Automatic annotation (TrEMBL):
Residues 4-73 form the HTH merR-type domain. SUPFAM superfamilies: Putative DNA-binding domain. SMART domains: HTH_MERR. It comes from the Bacteria. This is DNA-binding transcriptional MerR regulator. CDD domains: HTH_YyaN. InterPro entries: DNA-bd_dom_put_sf, MerR-type_HTH_dom, MerR_fam.
Length: 156
């Protein structure tokens, strides 16, 4: 395992731009990074480990201010582990609530899809109408629509 990573290596590893990486530093999500004798920034393994968690939390919509607080707790040492646990459990609760909301919306969309498939199965002439101008026609024939409505699977 390497002792240091270049900004380019870290950015590539986490799918970030160099600008985003610098922003994370300026926002206080990462400690002040070390410099190589040449003056170039370099990240230690613990920076990379924290960035992995920061990226996960940011990708799940944790606000930057909350991320900064969490990063400060990490830098403050092991005595902050109970506080870090509270932050993570609170965020996980938020995610679980959001996932439940998204599942409800997904169910609503699926219900509407099923409804439209049923309408097309009952009215084969609707399925044969051309798509509106400017769209690609993805219409299926009445037997195909009926098969999809009955089985939920398309024939490929």
């Amino acid at each position: 395992m390497k002792d240091y990573y270049t900004p380019g290596e870290v950015a590539e590893r986490f799918g970030l731009t160099l600008d985003t990486l610098r922003y994370y530093e300026k926002a206080g999500l990462l400690r002040r990074v070390d410099r190589a004798p040449s003056g170039h920034r370099r990240y230690r393994t613990d920076d990379v480990d924290l960035l992995h968690l920061v990226r996960c939390l940011r990708d799940t919509d944790m606000p930057i201010a909350r991320l900064r607080d969490f990063a400060e707790l990490v830098r403050d040492g092991d005595h902050t582990i109970p506080d870090r646990l509270d932050v993570l459990q609170s965020h996980q609760h938020h995610l679980n609530t959001r996932i439940a909301e998204l599942r409800e919306r997904q169910d609503t969309i699926q219900h509407k899809i099923d409804y439209y498939l049923g309408v097309l199965a009952d009215n084969p002439g609707l399925a044969e109408r051309s798509a509106p101008t400017g769209t690609t026609s993805g219409t299926a024939s009445a037997p195909e629509v009926t098969a999809v409505a009955a089985t939920g699977k398309e024939n490929s």
